[in-house]
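name: query_chain
kind: protein
chains: 1
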Amino acid sequence: MKKNLGIILLSALLMLDIAAHFVVLSSLYPMYSVDSGFRAKLILNSLESEIVRRDNSKLPDVEIANNPIHKFNIIFYDDKAYIHLNRGLIRLLSDEEMKALLAHELAHPILGHRPVVMPKLPNGPRYENNVETIEYVEYNIAVVKAREEMLKMEIEADRYASRFADKKAIAALINQLVIDDIEKEERLHALGFQDSSQ
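structure:
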């Protein structure tokens, strides 16, 4: 029994020593850290504690998954959220930008957001007698409404994240990661920035 307890304590001390070395090394060489996902998890744990302490919000069970394909996204399964982060993106972001990104992604489940389902393209011809069919008109209206709903949720998540992360870091992420110029302008304006150069 004492032998098992000793092994457990020794293992715990070894893990703490490895974590301490990792923190020192990653602060000296952040672009070359061995496990950049570990840094993201440390920032996530600190952020979750801050959100619970300051906001008393109920957080979903969250896991960070390194994803070689997507830049980032959040996927919901019942009461669990998976934040997928691209390994390269994790390495490129400063700690404050990582905190801003994670705060934004955590805001979605906290605020009760769910994925917006985009309408399916209708079957059949788009035009009849050089006039767009009613099915395509309805489709276009549904797409605009879905995009407006998605933009509304992104702005809400940006505003929530700004309570826990620096607004300039959020703006930097928007400038770097949002492709659509209209979405970029709307989100920056909602945070109080006049244009993407600020």
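note: The first strand starts at residue 61 and ends at 67.
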